[in-house]
Amino acid sequence: MNIIITGGAGFIGSNFVFHMLKEHPQDRVICLDKLTYAGNLSTLAPVMDQDNFRFVKADICDRNAVYRLFEEEHPDVIVNFAAESHVDRSIENPAIFLETNIMGTAVLMDACRKYGIQRYHQVSTDEVYGDLPLDRPDLFFTETTPIHTSSPYSSSKASADLLVLAYHRTYGLPVTISRCSNNYGPYHFPEKLIPLMIINALHDKPLPVYGDGLNVRDWLYVEDHCRAIDLILQKGRVGEVYNVGGHNEMRNIDIVKLICKELGKPESLIHHVTDRKGHDRRYAIDPTKIHKELGWLPETKFADGIKKTIQWYLDHEDWWQPIISGEYQQYYQKMYGSRG
Ligand code: NAD
Ligand code: DAU
């Protein structure tokens, strides 16, 4: 099989590239990535010279480049991770989110229609369901929960999901969608909660917790997400949405305190700062469908996964140091400099 993985130089995409090359060595993996601020070619260095791996720098919105790649590689499967993924950035500048996350998805699916495909898989998010109240722990997102988005990011992802389902119904495109909760693990870009707090704590810098810090996210180790997508490709039913989550709800403040504890840093580093606009309160996935239909269960417990992740950041300063010393500093100053 020839599989195109878009966004494979980013956090989850790179973990998925490694997963596929390890679990399916007979397949050919082509990574298409624009290398935005979030894409990092050095992440892929260990596989760059493998015969069954090819990296192509291109924009999923570039129709000519995408069609050319389909003509060269005759892919059987597309897995679309490519996206603008950070909620805070979407609040600052929605336009690029609409362009990449919606229009880019359309271009990829147009290529699938034109050249034919066995499967188009869209990597989506639990954020399309909006949020749940903190005082209703009995509520979870299922695949039939109405789409009800909060941020430009989640709205762009929801739009893409609707388009994917429309291409299935209208053109019969063989699609699947996964909607996953918050991932954590190696190669997570430092702008996101867990790596940001690890790296700030290591530098004894303030740990900026938005609002009261009581917002809840459902954390899943990235490898468990990769296994879920692999299973959906193999056994998932075409036209279906699968929720992916680990029943591991944590409050932001508790995660930050845990990181302080693991690194031996004082909780006095924690600073409550101005809340994110429209901040979703709680995400919680009901993964019954993927468990019952495909037999998927998460394998990594949070207590182990967070230790592994912290150790990975301790061992891989060579990966994150160049990132945080470049344009990231300007981003950080803009987003956090004046945040009271
Ligand atoms: P990321 O920001 O770390 O990586 C995104 C990758 O996409 C980067 O390599 C970037 O260069 C590439 N990219 C961006 N725009 C592109 C374009 N126009 N053309 C080609 N490549 C482009 O993101 P991530 O956290 O790895 O998320 C990957 C996917 O998973 C996204 O679709 C996101 O919505 C979804 N998702 C993420 C999480 C999470 O917790 N991180 C959870 C659920 C779903
Ligand atoms: O739920 C899946 C989503 O998870 C994905 O679709 C997104 O691509 C991914 O970025 C993530 O979105 P979140 O907004 O949940 O992740 P983030 O790491 O930005 O924030 C997690 C929580 O931590 C959120 O409640 C905001 C809070 N936060 C975040 C940052 C960066 C802070 O309190 N301080 C911070 O500095």
UniProtKB/TrEMBL annotation:
The UniProt similarity line reads: Belongs to the NAD(P)-dependent epimerase/dehydratase family. dTDP-glucose dehydratase subfamily.
Q: Which cofactor does it need?
A: NAD(+)
- Please report the stretch or stretches of sequence annotated as the NAD(P)-binding domain: 4-309
Enzyme class comes to lyase
Q: Which Pfam families match?
A: GDP_Man_Dehyd
The chemistry this enzyme catalyses reads:
dTDP-alpha-D-glucose = dTDP-4-dehydro-6-deoxy-alpha-D-glucose + H2O
Q: Does the keyword Lyase apply?
A: yes
Q: What is this protein called?
A: dTDP-glucose 4,6-dehydratase
PANTHER family listed in its UniProt record:
DTDP-D-GLUCOSE 4,6-DEHYDRATASE-RELATED
Q: Which gene encodes it?
A: rfbB
Q: Extract one GO molecular function annotation from the record.
A: dTDP-glucose 4,6-dehydratase activity
Q: Which UniProt keywords apply?
A: Lyase, NAD
User: Domain of life of the organism in this record?
Assistant: Bacteria
InterPro entries cross-referenced by the UniProt entry: dTDP_Gluc_deHydtase, NAD(P)-bd_dom, NAD(P)-bd_dom_sf
What Enzyme Commission number(s) appear in the record?
Answer: 4.2.1.46
